[in-house]
UniProtKB/TrEMBL annotation:
SUPFAM superfamilies xrefs: L domain-like
Pfam families found in the cross-reference section: LRR_1 (PF00560)
Protein name per its UniProtKB record: Uncharacterized protein
PANTHER family linked to this entry: OS01G0750400 PROTEIN, RECEPTOR PROTEIN-TYROSINE KINASE CEPR2-LIKE
Gene3D superfamilies: Ribonuclease Inhibitor (3.80.10.10)
Species of the source: Sphagnum jensenii
């Protein structure tokens, strides 16, 4: 059973994306420098690197339901919009890397629950407001 998949510097499409749906035990996914980052519903993922891609627009809502995710790297994409409030529900998250995108708004809080963040990078975005205390203490 496959636990780690690295497809750096490729252009996955068609059947390769359909395979993702069957990788229910996949823990680590590395799609660095690709043109597409459709990942389907990989609920077992704990590490995902989709940095340096040609993605644009908002963070897909499907990524905010990956409850086992501990590392999420979205750096240097053309992502924009607000960071979804549901990102605050990713309690296993220890590293969130968002720098060099076009995110706006505030960093979402999580209703007083503590994040386990040990790394939070969001420079070179258009974020405003204070960094929530639970992030600073992470």
């Amino acid at each position: 059973m496959l636990h780690t998949l690295g497809l750096n510097q490729n252009s996955p499409n068609g059947s390769i994306l359909e395979i993702f749906a069957n990788l229910t035990e996949l823990v680590s996914l590395d799609l660095l420098q690709n043109q597409r980052t459709d990942i389907g519903n990989l609920r077992s993922l704990s590490q995902m690197d989709v940095s340096h891609n040609q993605g644009s627009g908002a963070i897909p809502q499907s990524r905010t339901h990956l409850t086992n995710l501990s590392i999420l790297d979205l750096r240097q994409n053309s992502s924009s919009g607000v960071i979804p409030p549901s990102m605050a529900n990713l309690q296993a998250l220890t590293e969130l890397v968002l720098f060099e995108n076009h995110f706006t708004g505030i960093v979402p809080g999580n209703s007083g629950k503590d994040y386990n963040l040990t790394r939070f990078e969001a420079s070179t975005n258009l974020l405003s407001g204070a960094v929530p205390v639970h992030v600073r203490e992470g």
